[in-house]
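haha ok so turns out i had the wrong file open the whole time. this is the CORRECT one, sorry everyone. sequence first:
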Amino acid sequence: MPARPNFVFILADDLGYADLGCYGGRGKCSPVLDRMAREGLRFTQGYANSSVCSPTRFALMTGRWQHRLRGGADEPIRSRDARGNPHLGLPPAHPTLPSLLRDAGYATALVGKWHLGFPPHFGPLKSGYQEFFGALSGAMDYFTHQDSFGTHDLFENETPVHTKGYLTDLISEKAVSYIKRNKNRSFFLSVHYNAPHWPWETRDDEAEAKRIEKLYHFDGGSLATYLTMIRQMDEGIGRILLALKNSRIEKNTIVVFASDNGGERFADTWPLVGKKMDLLEGGIRVPYIVRWPAKVKAGGVTAQHAITMDWVATFLDAAGAKPDRNYPLDGKSLLPIIKKPQKTFARELFWKMLYRNQKAMRSGDWKYLCVEGDEFLFNLAKDERERANFGKRQPQRLAAMRAKYLAWDATLPKHPDATYSVPATKADMATPSS
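then structure:
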């Protein structure tokens, strides 16, 4: 019987759909990921569960619509709201991808960003990971390792550590170390970079880290800095792939690369429009690259519609593990697509955001979008930039998709009015009419 595969899931933070060379990027910042795409499978219709960070991470952990959990409704979870709050986080009793794989005999670890609640109520070790190195909050400085409120945020398991260094490199080094230590057993390793999330700092910008007072960094950054941050993450991914090769386990290790949502200030999303916080394509469509030499043919491309929570069903399927029957998965296994990329299956995908009261649905070539009460109907096969509104030309299709959206939304719990979303400002808006 073939050995079970290992899993390495690599997640970038706020990476734009077209930032990588293999997705049309105009900056030479991703030679390793470009090679990984040539050696594996690239999705052209991969989506994040949300256009902002922590909701997508709820879906990645549970394989279910993030809105099923109170913490998954915040856009995103804020440190000052969540510290000590027993409601804003991933409940330890809820089955997760790492807990289900752990129970199936896998070693599990998270290296990098958590952003799913704080101790004493929540944490990586409470939700299936056996090892953890990284940050608990949503944003942290690359050198001081402090969060947006100046609190130290670098941990080894549940103990604060004061390791010096550029956080992207520290994450890469810990991932490589974990692979070397666990090469003789089945493992699931999550590598969740905070790059290229702000503050805009490369390895050479420690002085900038000392200068800025708040991590939002409105007075800094540049396209060159942003691309360098991606390249330095890309270099770390190269070291991870090399560790798999040197450990002689690369052939039967499934490596997946993705982003948690669309890009931010300096990101490239061409030809898509919109960005992080938008349900336009630029806010939710993300790169997906899969490398599995034992099963995946090199140079593959698939148009399968996929979403973050699908990776839970996919990894469980590949491992021969079962989901918890009391928590049925909303995601679908992509394992058949990984093996036969052209045999796609039809499905419907949904999104909702408190931010600007956004609603969206994807069905085949068509997308329904509602922003602050204004409705749009786009044919993405003809118009990926979401400029031509077919709503008045095809009112029956618009009404049918609206009805399906409302039926889906009715299956989800309603959360309290205290649910947080980033305030909308005119400077941040990227509407279909802009």
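Residues 426-434 have pLDDT under 50 and may be disordered.
again sry for the mixup
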